[in-house]
């Protein structure tokens, strides 16, 4: 008997392919345990592709929850393999070989899918590639999982550490998110918000995932930074602007986005960069429409605003000026969405 574990990562569809972004091993372990326990309680077979450390921690927790791993292994309902070892079987010159992937991954799935059992998988191989900076191979591997899911029925949860969000770049991060049916934000989005990873005392940046929970997380991030700069009186207006721009990135661009705050003298610049196509234009909203007024709000609240487009996205910026201001001191239009000038 396995005890119930409350979770926000339950996959309700047999063909679901979710990604969980985690900020530390504790958060990742909670997600793995919840995913596996939910499958076992539903009489599914579970495949865990993870590092030895994460497999060991998972199995220790399962034992405390009452799972008999000997019986589960013997029956094929619990199959655990080393992520790096399996990855090495089909990774060729830094890229995933589709034929070798199908051969070796299917062999693992076959060990668990006997008797027509429903199957769920936790996969950490993409997270290892992501950690090592091989984001292109991680995106490729996600695509191979999706191709395999068209031929076989299983649900899949992948795990990625958030510490590499900035290094991956918005365009690649968007590709990762687009290859999943569900994106699960780290717990900080629902609590205190992401930590500060800034460029220095006068600049702060943070990358956010394209999920609704990102919008209140942005507001908390902006409020903390502005208060640390001693400009509390700007919090309400800057948060209103950032909320609108973040909502546009999530809802319309469907893209991860980066929020940048910069101060110069008595002026504060806020900029939101995403990997979506097109530009941002203020439109006249129908009086009866619920939405469509975001940029009108930005224009009404900020002293200046504009949108600069790049080959790989756009940046919408707004200026709050309480004194003299030289727009040339802010680098908002000289590089693309993944450029060093717009990232941490």
Question: Can you give a write-up of this model?
Answer:
The chain has 344 residues and is α/β, with parallel strands linked by helices. It folds into two domains: 17-184, Rossmann fold (3-Layer(aba) Sandwich); 203-342, Histidine kinase-like ATPase, C-terminal domain (Heat Shock Protein 90, 2-Layer Sandwich). Helices cover 40% and strands 22% of the residues. The chain contains twelve helices and 13 strands. The protein has helices at residues 25-41, 52-64, 69-75, 83-90, 98-112, 125-131, 135-151, 165-168, 170-178, 214-228, 235-253, 294-301, and strands at residues 17-22, 45-50, 78-82, 91-92, 95-96, 119-123, 155-161, 182-184, 203-208, 257-264, 267-274, 304-310, 313-321. Strand 10 and strand 11 (267-274) form a beta hairpin. The chain is elongated and about 70 Å long. It starts with 16 loop residues before the first strand and ends in a 23-residue tail after the last strand. Mean pLDDT is 85; it is low at 1-9, 285-292, 324-328 and 333-344.
Task: Furnish the topology, listing elements before pairings.
Elements: E1 17-22, H1 25-41, E2 45-50, H2 52-64, H3 69-75, E3 78-82, H4 83-90, E4 91-92, E5 95-96, H5 98-112, E6 119-123, H6 125-131, H7 135-151, E7 155-161, H8 165-168, H9 170-178, E8 182-184, E9 203-208, H10 214-228, H11 235-253, E10 257-264, E11 267-274, H12 294-301, E12 304-310, E13 313-321
Parallel strand pairs: 1-7, 1-8, 2-3, 2-6, 6-7
Antiparallel strand pairs: 4-5, 9-10, 10-11, 11-13, 12-13
CATH topology of the largest domain: Rossmann fold
Task: Please compute the radius of gyration using only Cα atoms.
Answer: 22 Å
- The CATH homologous superfamily of the largest domain is termed P-loop containing nucleotide triphosphate hydrolases
Strand content: 15-25%
Q: So what's the CATH class of the largest domain? A: Alpha Beta
Strand-and-helix sequence, N→C? Answer: EHEHHEHEEHEHHEHHEEHHEEHEE
The tally of helices reads 12
Largest beta-sheet details: 6 strands, parallel
3D shape: elongated
N- and C-termini, Cα separation: 47 Å
Q: How many distinct domains? A: 2
């Amino acid at each position: 008997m396995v005890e119930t574990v409350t979770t926000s990562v339950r996959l309700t569809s047999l063909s679901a392919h979710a990604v969980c972004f985690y900020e530390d091993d504790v958060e990742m372990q909670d997600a793995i345990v919840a995913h596996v326990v939910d499958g076992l309680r539903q009489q599914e077979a579970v495949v865990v592709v993870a590092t030895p450390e994460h497999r060991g921690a998972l199995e220790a927790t399962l034992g405390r929850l009452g799972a008999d791993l000997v019986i589960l292994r013997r029956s094929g309902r619990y199959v655990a393999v080393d992520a790096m070892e399996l990855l090495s079987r089909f990774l060729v010159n830094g890229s995933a070989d589709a034929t070798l992937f199908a051969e070796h991954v299917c062999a693992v799935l076959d060990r668990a899918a006997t008797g027509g059992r429903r199957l769920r998988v936790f996969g950490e191989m993409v997270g290892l590639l992501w950690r090592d900076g091989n984001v292109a191979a991680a995106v490729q591997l996600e695509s191979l999982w999706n191709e395999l899911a068209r031929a076989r029925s299983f649900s899949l949860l992948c795990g990625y550490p958030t510490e590499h969000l900035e290094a991956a770049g918005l365009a690649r991060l968007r590709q990762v998110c687009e290859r999943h049916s569900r994106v699960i934000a780290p717990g900080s989005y629902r609590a205190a918000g992401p930590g500060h990873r800034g460029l220095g005392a006068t600049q702060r940046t943070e990358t956010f995932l394209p999920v609704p929970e990102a919008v209140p997380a942005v507001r908390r991030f902006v409020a903390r930074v502005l208060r640390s700069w001693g400009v509390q009186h700007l919090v309400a207006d800057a948060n209103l602007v950032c909320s609108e721009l973040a909502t546009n990135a999530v809802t319309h661009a469907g893209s991860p986005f980066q929020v940048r705050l910069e101060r110069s003298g008595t002026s504060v610049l806020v900029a939101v960069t995403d990997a979506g196509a097109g530009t941002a234009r203020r439109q006249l909203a129908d009086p009866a429409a619920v939405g469509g007024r975001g940029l009108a709000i930005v224009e009404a609240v900020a002293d200046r605003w504009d949108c600069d487009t790049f080959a790989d996205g756009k940046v919408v910026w707004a200026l709050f000026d309480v004194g003299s201001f030289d727009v040339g001191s802010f680098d908002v239009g000289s590089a693309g969405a993944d450029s060093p000038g717009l990232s941490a």
